[in-house]
Amino acid sequence: MIPRLLLFLSLIGVTVSIIVGGGGGGGYNDHSGHYSHSDSSDSSDSHEHRPRPHRPRPPRPQPGRPPRERTNCPANWLLFKRPQGNWCVGTFVHPTMLGVGVAEEQCKSHGARLTGFQSSEERMRIAEAGRQLVIQNNLVKPSVWVGARNKPECGSRSACPDSRNSFYWTDGHTQNGTDGFGWQAGNPMLEYGYKDVHRVYGISGCVVLSIGRNGVTAYEVWKGFLHGLLDDTWCHATTRLYACGKKAT
C-alpha cells in the first residue's frame, strides 16, 4: 500500500515540474531563439503605422450645362428664335412723320436698333403688327422704317444687277442673306432722285416695309404694291411707323 502511494506522489511531482517549467518539449534556454512577448512588442513598435495627413479630394468636373435660352422681351414685343441668339422686335407709331435718322434715335431710346428680318416669317409678322397700328391710328399710305441700307458698292442698279444682294441689314444681329429680303416687284430700284436742280435726293438706299390695311394691297396709289413686302426709298423720306430690334434677355 505504501509503495503505491509513494509512486503516485512521485508522478504528481513530475507533472507539476513539467507545467511550471514550460510545458515539455525539452525545455528552453534564453539563447534558443524563443522570443518573449516583450520582444515582439518592441519589434511591432519599430514598424508602427503612422496615418498620412488628410488631403481633400479634388472636385470632380461637372458635366457642362447648356446656357439658358434667353426668351424675355419687353411687353408687346415679338420674340423671334434665331440660331445666333433670340431677338425681340417692337413696332411703334410716332405722333408725327419721321425720317430714318429720327426713327433710329427712337429705337436707341429702347436700347435697340432699327431691325432687320432674317426670314419671310419675321417680315410678315411685323407687317401684321404694323397693320394693327395702321387700323388703330387710321393711317394713310403707311409704311415701316426698317434697318437696311444699300451696300456701298451698289450705287446704281447697273452696279448691282442682282438686286437680291444689293442691300444689307444694319442692326448688327440679323444674318445677311436673301431670306428676309422680300421686295416689291421691280424693286429695289436703287433710283437716283432729284427734288429740283438745286437739291439732290441721292440714291434710294433706305428701306421701308409696305403695310396694307386689308392685309393684301399696300397702297392704292401704287398699283401692284403688296402688304408685307419691302420697298427701297430715299433716306430723307418720312413715315410714322418704325420697327426696333434687340437681343432677348
UniProtKB/TrEMBL annotation:
Name of the protein in question: C-type lectin domain-containing protein
Gene3D superfamilies: Mannose-Binding Protein A, subunit A (3.10.100.10)
InterPro entries: C-type_lectin-like, C-type_lectin-like/link_sf, CTDL_fold
Native organism: Caenorhabditis remanei
Entry keyword Iron-sulfur: no
UniProt biased composition (Basic and acidic residues): 31-48
CDD domains cross-referenced by the UniProt entry: CLECT (cd00037)
Biased composition annotated in UniProt, kind: Basic residues: 49-58
Signal peptide range in chain numbering: 1-17
Keyword Signal: yes
